[in-house]
Input
Amino acid sequence: MNDTIVAISTALGVGAIAIVRLSGPDALSIASQLFKEKDLTKVKSHTISYGHIYDNDELIDEVLVSVMKAPKTYTTEDIVEINCHGGIIATNKVLQLCLTKGARLADRGEFTKRAFLNGRIDLAESEAVMDIIESKSDEARKLAVSNLKGNISNLIQNYRTNLKNLLSSIEVNIDYPEYYDIEVVTLEKLNTEIKKLKCDLQNLIDLSENTNYLKNGIKTVIVGKPNVGKSSILNNLLQEEKAIVTNIAGTTRDTVEGEIYLDGILLNIIDTAGIRQTNDLVEKIGVNKSLSLIDEADLVITVLNSNEELSSEDEEILNKTKDKLRIIVLNKTDLPRHLEIDNLENIISTTALNADGLKPLKDKIKELFNLEKLKVSDSAYLANTRQISLAKKAYQNLEDAELSLQNNNPIDMIEIDLKACFDTLGEIIGITYSDEIIDNLFANFCVGK
Output
């Protein structure tokens, strides 16, 4: 943290501009050795200077140099950003010159890591930075921005404050039982406070697990026996001829994929080979792949022909998908109906002949995933598996405390569980952390961020 780091902070390649970013105690002096027009150590903070980068007497590039002095910067250190003409050769040359003048090539995510270690942002906000970069939908972007604003951090801090107050009261009652002017922490009060914290934490976990769909989309697999209209459903959802459609059974032999946005949420849709017994080696590979994708899916759309009676193949497919979140589509409602299957959940009838016929399917997806309500405003959500798993661990700590209460264990035993919950919640926002976790987390960032 005492050295100066440098990296190219824009995508490497041909473009209008490229930015070489320096951060650290020698950022200004290093840049000044390359920038001949001004002494950058003496310019005002948060200003831009026009000039040129030189390698001794050789002109390298015409640039704009942004100077931002500590502490009001991204890393809280001195930062210099050299805005070059976009191009691989010139940008790399400027980077190499910074390295020869004493800077060190930044590790992945090291600028954001410094912002965290210097206390400008916490761990949840650090993760939100990467989430903004990787957003696949507008709703995912909104979620990341919400967390970058500190919404989840403030909520976790509120939980910790409530726990801290409760723990302080317990400590006072244990250490100074002779005082009559302090609030007595009764078992009833403890039970009430623990139940409230459990309820709040469970609600947060439930809401947050749904936000995974905001970030990564809903992996949707279309399955059924051959010739039930799976490819037509895919094509009309995507509104393009993505999959070949014929009346020949077994036309689709491999997966066909596409993406659509439904109420701002990404659906990753996979059309699979028709599931049936076959001696054709290629088709058999496709069938096995279809079956494996069922296990990986967030949603399975099981397609049946409404104009045919239920076959043994249909029954096998229904059995293989029974434990998944599933929508059963009775397709080909434009033909006389011969299929009766009313004893299962989430059944819709439709025709895949045109996009309008798939409105019932879209409406059912919205209903199952609560897409009308799964919108990000200023609500707080845990943003990833790490945060959710820690929240679940904290919830378990509260359950342990509650069980100790029920078993009439000594209050100092209950205090141990509450302290564990307090520390676990701190891990979410990085108040407590290990170096290994921090290194692994920032290793997922891009270089220069």
Residues 299 and 325 are 5 Å apart (CA to CA). The chain is about 45% helix and 15% strand. The radius of gyration is 29 Å. The longest helix spans residues 187-216.
